[in-house]
């Protein structure tokens, strides 16, 4: 009686799988989740990082910035060939900070190229 109880389990273990199509179908949900995560999280973050890099390259005098430490200041000196910028954090208080520590550009005084034509009118 006990041996008949174990026979169906033995047949279930020896039964063949669905083949190569079955293994592909088992990975399809993981691939789908990765694609969704890429478009919802990774890609927008990469675009935001590129935008910040462009803003850091175009920092000019008078731009308001926020550093990684949470300090809000106004750019006083910025050279394209240097990684340091001079920021005024209070009246007559200026500090040197690295461009890489700037996390946000609040207001920018840089004008887009097409605004020059509008100013002449």
For this entry, give a set of tags.
alpha+beta; transport; 121 residues; 5-stranded antiparallel sheet; 47% helix
- Terminal CA distance reads 100 Å
Secondary structural class: alpha+beta
Q: What string gives the helices and strands in order?
A: HHEEEEEH
Helix fraction, binned, reads 40-55%
> Strand order within the widest sheet?
4-3-2-1-5
User: Largest sheet at a glance?
Assistant: 5 strands, antiparallel
What does this structure look like?
With 121 residues, the protein is α+β, with helices and mostly antiparallel strands. It has helices at residues 2-14, 20-57, 115-120; strands at residues 64-67, 72-78, 84-90, 93-98, 102-107. The protein has a five-stranded antiparallel sheet. Strand 3 and strand 4 (93-98) form a beta hairpin. The N and C termini lie far apart (100 Å).
Lay out the secondary structure:
Blueprint: H1 2-14, H2 20-57, E1 64-67, E2 72-78, E3 84-90, E4 93-98, E5 102-107, H3 115-120
Antiparallel strand pairs: 1-2, 1-5, 2-3, 3-4
Short description:
The chain is α+β, with helices and mostly antiparallel strands and 121 residues long. It has helices at residues 2-14, 20-57, 115-120; strands at residues 64-67, 72-78, 84-90, 93-98, 102-107. Keywords: Cell membrane, Membrane, Protein transport, Translocation, Transmembrane, Transmembrane helix, Transport.
